[in-house]
Amino acid sequence: MRDYTTGIVLTGDARDTARAEAARLYEQGMTVDAVAAAIGRSHGGTHALLREAGVQMRPRGGNTRKTAAQ
Asked: Which residue from 60, 59, 64, 39 is spatially nearest to 49, judged by alpha carbons?
């Protein structure tokens, strides 16, 4: 089930606000999916906002190296 609004295109000030909020959250370490959930948008729409904001995207997959303790 979707938890975001469909059919509403962000424009003007609303898009600027969503772009800034998405960039802030992503730069704090949240994943794209977590940012999307926080701002109520889809993954793809959030990714587009982040690209528009000029955010440096992190590599996919997170930390795949095992620690010495494992």
From this structure: 39
